[in-house]
Design goal:
single chain, alpha+beta, Transferase(Phosphotransferase), domain 1, about 25% helix, binds adenosine-5'-diphosphate, binds magnesium ion, ATP-binding
Length: about 350
C-alpha cells in the first residue's frame, strides 16, 4: 500500500470501494478496489476471493479489465487494476444524441468478444450491466467487476444463488428463483445492454422484483409451456401467476433499429436460457457484417472525465411491496413468494 498514493474515490458499489491511485515509483495511474474478506454462513469464501480467482484465470484478454496485482490489506484485500476513464453507463448517459448504429455495433462486438472469452473459460459473470463495462481512454470496452463471477461446470450439479445480477439485467429464470442456471444469465444481460445502447434507456427498468418480471412479460408475452417448458421446474413458478399477455413485436421495443439489430436482440431475449444465442455465435450474426460496419474503438465517444460515479440499483435487492401498491398488471399470487 505504501507504494501508492490515493488520489480520490471513484466508485462505490455493492462489494467494495474503488479509489484512483498513483504508483509512486512509476507514476502509473491505477484503480484500487478494497474488498473486505468475509465468509458466508456455509464457509464459502466470499466475493473477494471469487473475484480474484476468476480474474486470475482470465488475464490478458483485451476485453477484460487487467488485474495488475493483489495484496492483503487490513482484514481484506486490495485489487489493483489498470485505470479506466469511464464506464458504459456514463457513455450512455452522456451522449448528446443517441449512439450511432456503428458505435453500438462497436461496443456490442467488444462486449461479445469479452463474454465469449469468459464463457469459453467456463466463467459466468452474473452481473453484466453498463456500470460494469469499463471504457479505456483508447475507447476499448473491458468487462469488470467479477465479484459475482462463478466457474461453471457443464454437469450443472451445483446450486447457485438466484439473488445475482442487478435487477434490470436479471434473467427471467433468476426472477423465478432458479438455483440451477448457466451462462444464459449473461446472454440475457447482454440483450438488455444491447437494447439500452440502442435506446439510450434501460429496456426493463423494473422498480421491484415483481414489476421486473412484469416488464419482461409485457414484451415477451406470458411464458407458456410451449415457449418455456422448463418453467414448471422453477422454484417460484407456482407462487405467482400473471394474466395472459401476448408478446409484442420486438421492433416496438427498439424503434428505429435495423431488422438485423432486432433479429440479434431477439436471439438473446428468449425465455429458455439454452435457446439464447451464445456470444461466440452472435459475433457471426449478419448484424455485424451489414453496413454501417462496427466503429473502430478510436471512433467511439471520448468518455467523460472521471468523477464520482453514481450507481445503478443495488445488486442484491428484494423488495417486499404490498401488492396493492405495486405497479403490476393484475397479478394473482397463489402464495406469497418469499423472494418476490
Ligand atoms: P462493485 O462490485 O462495488 O460494483 P466495481 O468493480 O464495479 O465494484 O467498481 C465500482 C465502480 O468503480 C465501477 O462501476 C466503476 O465506475 C469504478 N471502477 C471500477 N474499476 C475501475 C477501473 N479499473 N478504472 C476506473 N474506474 C473503475
Ligand atoms: Mg460493479
Amino acid at each position: 500500500m505504501d507504494q501508492y498514493s490515493i488520489l480520490g474515490r471513484i466508485g462505490e458499489g455493492a462489494h467494495g470501494i474503488v479509489f484512483k491511485a498513483k504508483h509512486i515509483e512509476t507514476g502509473q495511474t491505477v484503480a484500487m478496489k478494497k474488498v473486505a474478506l468475509r465468509r458466508s454462513e456455509e464457509g464459502i469464501p466470499n466475493q473477494a476471493l471469487r473475484e480474484i480467482k476468476a480474474l486470475q484465470e482470465i488475464q490478458d484478454n483485451p476485453y477484460v479489465v487487467r488485474l495488475k496485482e493483489v495484496f492483503p490489506h487490513g482484514t481484506g484485500f486490495v485489487l489493483v487494476f489498470d485505470f479506466m476513464l469511464s464506464d458504459l453507463s456514463e457513455v450512455i448517459r452522456n451522449t448528446q444524441r443517441p449512439l450511432t448504429q456503428s458505435q453500438v455495433k462497436g461496443y456490442m462486438m467488444m462486449l461479445l468478444k469479452g463474454v465469449a472469452f469468459l464463457h469459453h473459460n467456463n466463467i459466468m459473470h452474473r452481473d453484466l450491466k453498463p456500470a460494469n463495462l469499463l471504457i479505456s481512454s483508447s475507447g476499448h470496452l473491458k468487462i469488470a467487476d467479477f465479484g459475482l463471477a462463478r466457474l461453471f461446470s457443464s454437469q450443472q450439479q451445483r446450486l447457485y444463488s438466484h439473488q445475482v445480477a442487478t435487477r434490470w439485467y436479471r434473467a427471467p429464470e433468476l426472477l423465478y428463483g432458479a438455483r440451477k442456471y448457466d451462462e444464459g444469465v449473461d446472454l440475457w444481460a447482454v440483450g438488455c445492454v444491447f437494447g439500452e445502447l440502442v435506446n439510450s434507456s434501460p429496456l426493463f427498468p423494473g422498480e421491484n422484483d415483481i414489476e421486473q418480471l412484469c416488464c419482461v412479460l409485457r414484451v415477451l408475452g406470458t411464458p407458456t409451456l410451449e415457449t418455456w417448458p422448463e418453467m414448471v421446474e422453477l422454484p417460484d413458478y407456482n407462487k405467482i401467476t400473471f394474466k395472459e399477455n401476448p408478446a409484442l413485436p420486438l421492433d416496438d421495443l427498439v424503434p428505429d433499429s435495423s431488422p438485423q439489430a432486432v433479429s440479434l436482440l431477439s436471439s438473446f431475449l428468449v425465455y429458455p436460457p439454452k435457446q439464447r444465442c451464445p456470444a461466440a455465435k452472435a459475433l457471426l450474426h449478419p448484424y455485424f457484417f451489414t453496413p454501417p460496419l462496427p466503429a473502430h474503438h478510436s471512433e467511439l465517444p471520448i468518455p467523460p472525465p472521471p468523477r464520482q460515479r453514481s450507481q445503478a440499483p443495488p445488486t442484491h435487492f428484494s423488495v417486499h411491496l404490498p401488492l396493492e401498491n405495486s405497479l403490476v398488471d393484475p397479478v394473482l399470487l397463489r402464495h406469497h413468494a418469499p423472494c418476490l
